[in-house]
Amino acid sequence: MKCIYSFAFTALLSAAYVANAQNVGVGTTTPLSPLHVAAAQAQVARFHNLTPLATSTNTAFYLQTGDWITGGIKTIGTSPQAARMGLFTYASVDPSSLLERVSITDGGNVGINQVAPSATLEVNGTLKITDGTQGANKVLTTDGAGLASWKTLPANTAFGATQSAGASIPNGTDTKIAFAQENYDPGNGFASGNYTVPVTGVYHFDADIPGTGALQTASTSYIMELRVNNVAVRSMSAVNAANTAYNGLGISCDLSLSAGNVVNVYFRQFNSQGNSMNIAGSSPENNPHFTGHRVY
Question: What is the residue extent of each domain of the chain?
Fold first, then answer.
């Protein structure tokens, strides 16, 4: 009997100590919070709902500050063998008013404002990604490893120019056509017959040197070239007999180009009499023209 009284007295003293300290320790004699659980194992604590798992059956853990429930974590049954985990917010005095913001299914899909995500990540709402490089009209792109970053959207640059006067082609000389009259050039990439590629991509070009109707007194050969960095990448040629008219040459093509490439048009004519040739037409529609634009 004396042993029983001694045990009861010791237990009472321990209880009084816990009450005064307001901390309860499980597995520790020095609890650092109102409830302190310590164990040398992976499974330190378990919250067990004895209700059988079924659709909409949930087990909840709530956080409360003062009179307000400020958040919660729940598992919600989606079938008798499956559940999802939900993170709840929206301060309320009623836990049923909390809203499920993040949902994770048994299959590993994550939903934001979507309780039944059908993809690894499904967002119901807007998305904002900021890393210091974001900006107006930028696009989110990825590298080969899937790492995303913001990039400036390349401009769909374009230009158009004509040659209405002063286009005399010497005999036997490669001559760059200046196309001195600019019709449009919003990116300022065209100057003095040269188009400088602003960004790497695929570009389309049209160049045309129409026939003038003037007779050539000698047999004449003609060649027109579209050059990139002074190397011909496309060409057209023709040969006319004596006392016949030049009927025109044109080039239309797509080219894959790198930023900084320079594109221009050259024309050469050769005849046995050494005559020069004027390629400017008598009206705007007959003038040589050079246009180009970025495709993608």
Answer: 1-43, 47-127, 158-294
Q: What is the pLDDT of residues 218-263, one digit of tens each?
A: 899 999 999 999 999 999 999 988 888 888 999 999 999 999 999 9
User: Look-up: residue for tokens 């059956």?
Assistant: 57
Instruction: Supply the CATH classification number for the domain 158-294.
Output: 2.60.120.40
- Give how far Cα 108 sits from Cα of 80, 117, 122, 209, Å: 18, 9, 12, 64
The pair phi, psi for residue 8, each rounded to 5°, is -65, -40
Residue 166 pLDDT: 63
- Residue 106 tokens, joined: 């048994």
In whole angstroms, give the CA distance from residue 77 to residue 66.
Answer: 30
* Rg of the chain taking only CA atoms, in angstroms: 41
Say how far apart CA 286 and CA 272 lie, in whole Å.
26
CB 159 within 8 A of CB 197: no
Q: What is the pLDDT of residue 218?
A: 86
Residue (of 149, 152, 129, 153) closest to 141 by Cα position: 149
What whole-number distance in Å separates Cα of residue 33 and Cα of residue 168?
A: 94
- Of the two residues 59 and 155, the one the predictor is more confident about is 59
Is residue 17 predicted with pLDDT exceeding 50? no
294 and 203 Cβ atoms separated by less than 8 Å: yes
DSSP strand pairing (35-37 vs 24-26): parallel
